[in-house]
Amino acid sequence: MPAKTTAQRQKVLVLNIRGGSALPELRTTFPEAELTVVESSQIASWLSADEATLVDWQQAIGWLRQGGFDAAIILTAPGQSPYTLGYLCYLAGIPIRVGRSSEFGGQVLSHCAPPAQDDNALVDLLRGSGRSLAPALR
């Protein structure tokens, strides 16, 4: 991914299904990035389906594409999989997809770190995803 100039701020999508606020940690890690945080209730409205309502995958992928995101950080609670959201981001063409999982998911996540044992998951995830991640987003 070519580096953006300062006039072109990096656009980072944060899909937060673990709960809690990730914004303070993200602002510290990516001070120059334009952050879009999507909380679990919004994500649930995309993905929830019952017999009367089908998931509109094309609409979700279209929204992600229109956002023009350079990266997606998928925050999950222990036991939750990042792969459904990671795959949506992959289909939308988001080049950097970061998540935490103990399972193998192929290339759905471009940066995958093992689950953490503590609550400082975001910082551990970004450090564990490789030192190249933060510079790639700056």
List the helices and strands and how they pair.
Layout (H helix, E strand, L loop, with lengths): L10 E6 L6 H7 L4 E6 H8 L9 H11 L3 E5 L7 H9 L4 E5 L10 E3 L7 H8 L4 H5 L1
Parallel strand pairs: 1-2, 1-3, 3-4, 4-5
Order of helices and strands: EHEHHEHEEHH
CATH class: Alpha Beta
**Total strands:** 5
CATH superfamily: Glycogen Phosphorylase B
Form type: globular
Helix content: 25-40%
- Widest sheet: strand ordering: 2-1-3-4-5
Total of helices: 6
Q: Which structural class do you get from the secondary structure elements?
A: alpha/beta
What's the structural domain tally? 1
Q: What is the alpha-carbon Rg in Å? A: 15 Å
Task: Describe the model.
This protein has 138 residues and is α/β, with parallel strands linked by helices. It has one domain: Glycogen Phosphorylase B (Rossmann fold), CATH 3.40.50. The chain is 35% helix and 18% strand. The chain contains six helices and five strands; from the N terminus they run E-H-E-H-H-E-H-E-E-H-H. A five-stranded parallel beta sheet has the order 2-1-3-4-5, sandwiched between helices. Strand 3, helix 4 (83-91) and strand 4 form a beta-alpha-beta unit. It is globular and about 40 Å long. The chain starts with 10 loop residues before the first strand and ends with a helix. 32% of the residues are buried. The model has no long low-confidence stretch (mean pLDDT 76).
